[in-house]
Each structure stands twice: as structure tokens, then as C-alpha cells.
Amino acid sequence: MPAMVVFRKILALSAAAMILAACGSISREPFTNADLRSVQAPTGLEGLRFNGNDAAAGLAFVDRFRAQSSQRFLHGVKALAISGGGANGAYGAGIIVGWTQSASRPDFDVVTGVSTGALTAPFAFLGSKWDDELRAAYTDGEAANLTSGRLGALFLPSLFRVQPLKHLVEKHVDAELLRAVAAEHRKGRRLLVATTNLDTEETVIWDMGEIAISAERPGNEAASVELFSTVLVASASIPGVFPPAVIPVQGAGRAVSEMHVDGGVTVPFFFIPESMNLWRAPDRMRPGELYVVVNGKVGPTFGFTKGKTMAILGRSYNAMSRSQTKANLLVAQGFADRNNATLRYTAIPDNAEASSLDFSTENMRDLFQRGFEAGRSGQAFKPLEAPPPATPGPAPDPR
């Protein structure tokens, strides 16, 4: 289905949802910013996350990481960041699986995911033995249910119910997966996922390995599996399309419920917290090879824009999303340059047909295959192109 047709369909449904907006809501007990001052983690689970703009918390995470992982970093930290992109995540999944076939897929020290990239990240983190699971998650037809069935707008503040998304995640996230993540975490590797806290308008970075470790505490396995799944669902919950995830936390003397949505609302992908974008890493934490999987297009594409609401909104959304991604790539390149690291990225070709909201099985299999072929070729990743040098102007008149 052409991308613009899919987007128009979603926008048309959005218009209907707005008419019914007063009906759909999530019941929450109000709280103030003061109630959140002592909030560290979901009740009973500590040290699992931090805010992306909290410089002290970011440095504390890095210090713990360095203490546990210093022997891995003799040649610099290897990191993979996987972006958001909805249904376009099938492309990134194909890249990962095809990369295995090229025999050049690195063993990453850090893997991060946002939105659909959060769903891919655990499998990319665990390595090629989990490729079949990753392939199935994007091509077995389960994802087609995400935007099918009755609308949720009558009862929830979204177009669609969250149950199909939860079912997709829970189908693949179980105690076995958490045990595998915990084992890699103990080797000094890190799996990180970003969500957006709507109450604070901040990026929240979750250490998924710590959640996996927490499952080993007596009587805590089920709660940890549930939290792991909830974070992935929250990160992939496109605002307005799927309802937010409500996560209970312990505030200053009272329990409160945070509202989390798609991590892509605040950041399309990440290597480090935003508070550390200008950071110069010490030698024992020096970035080495940085890779970005962009589940979308980066360059502009021509498309005649009709003077109608749906067409204007659709083209505006595409332009905004690509601009945000390009800006983040430049920020990542600056971080790499400051630390003498290399940065390479892959993205859906600008001339390809793709839509982040087309979850049809045919579309996702086509995107997966496109990514698979690119990954298998060994040529999928490329550096950012430097702008051509400026043409010297005329010499100033000395008079």
C-alpha cells in the first residue's frame, strides 16, 4: 500500500478519534513535581533507569559500566543504535539478520533501541543465535494485527488498543530471554532502551540488563519479565496510535503512576544520554566503532503536495521526522569526531516505498528482505557525507 495512502488512512481515523476524544481516557491519580523528587525506579526495583538530561546520573552509569567492563574496551567501545520507525523496523531487522550472513557483524559492547528499534534491540544484543526469533517478530504476520480490529478511541486516548502490541512483545519476551540478556550483561555488555516520560517531557533510559538481573531475585521473575515487556511496549507506543504505558513508581511518601510513550518523541536514536553529547570520553571508555540503523529515510523525496489537510499534514510529518533524524546523525558524528571514533549508518533508500504505519505482512516482509539483502552485501553501512569545501570568494579590497 503506498505510504501516503496509509498515512491518509491513519489521519482520517485520527479525525474520527478527535470527535470521540472526550470518551477515551486513562484514569490517573493527580500528583505534583514534588511527589516525584525521590522517584528512582518502579516500586521494588532500583538502579534500572535514569533521565537522559541528568548529567550526574549519566556519568554514574558510565562509571559503573567502566568498572564492570574495562577489559572489553582495549580497542574502543563498539556500539549499535537502532532508531524508531514503526513498521519500517522490518528493514532494520532484515539488516541485522543479513549482517550475520555477511560474516562481518561485530560483537557490540552496547546496543540501544528506540520505539520499533527497542523491539529489535534485545535480539541484536543477544547475537546471531536469535536471528530466527528476530525474523519471526517482523515477518510472521503477527504485526498486521497492530492496526486492525476495532478502534480504541471510544475507551482510550488512542486509535488502537494496546493488546495486539503487548501480545507481540510478550510472545517473544520471557524468562529465557531475560536469562540470556542477564548473562551478556554480566560479561560487561549493555542493552539500553529509551522511553519518553510525558509528565516530565524527558527521555528515560532503561538498563534492560539490570532488569534482567533483577529477575534472579527470589520471587521476582514474573515482575521483571513484566517490566521488561512494559518498557518495550512503552517505547513502541506511538502517541495517538497506541495508548501510553502507565508505570507505577514510588514517589516522596506516596505511589504515583508515570505515563510513558514512544522514545522517538524525544530522540530518534542514541548512543549516550543527551546530557553527554559534548562529552570527551576517557581512554578506558573511548568510543571505537559506532553504527546506526535508521528505520526510515534520511534524504528528501519529491511528492506533489495537494492543497488538502491530509496531504499537508502527511508531508509535514515526513519532513519533520527526517529533519530530526538528520540532526541527530550530525550530533552523533560530532560525538564520534571528538572521541576519534568512526560512525556509519544505514537507512531505507530514498527512492524505496515505505510507510511507518503500514503493518501489513506483505509490506513488512518486503522491507525485511530489502534490509536482509543490504545487510548480507556487507555494503549497507556508510559514513556521513561531508559537505564540499566552500568556494573561496574574491580577495578583500585592501583599499
The overall pLDDT average reads 84
Quick one: biggest sheet? 9 strands, mixed
The H-and-E topology, N to C, reads as HEHEHEHHHHEEHHEEEHEH
Strand content: 5-15%
List the main descriptive attributes of the protein structure presented here.
single chain, 9 strands
How would you describe this protein?
The chain is 39% helix and 14% strand. By secondary structure, it is of the alpha/beta class. Strands 1, 2, 3, 4, 5, 6, 7, 8 and 9 form a nine-stranded mixed sheet that branches. Strand 4 and strand 5 (202-207) form a beta hairpin. It is globular and about 75 Å long. 44% of the residues are buried.
Itemize the secondary structure elements and their pairings.
Layout: H1 3-19, E1 49-51, H2 55-69, E2 77-82, H3 89-101, E3 110-114, H4 116-126, H5 131-139, H6 163-172, H7 175-186, E4 190-197, E5 202-207, H8 208-214, H9 221-235, E6 245-250, E7 255-262, E8 287-294, H10 309-338, E9 342-347, H11 361-377
Parallel strand pairs: 2-3, 2-8, 3-4, 8-9
Antiparallel strand pairs: 1-5, 4-5, 4-7, 6-7
Concise synopsis of the structure shown:
This protein has helices spanning 3-19, 55-69, 89-101, 116-126, 131-139, 163-172, 175-186, 208-214, 221-235, 309-338, 361-377, and strands spanning 49-51, 77-82, 110-114, 190-197, 202-207, 245-250, 255-262, 287-294, 342-347. By secondary structure, it is α/β, with parallel strands linked by helices.
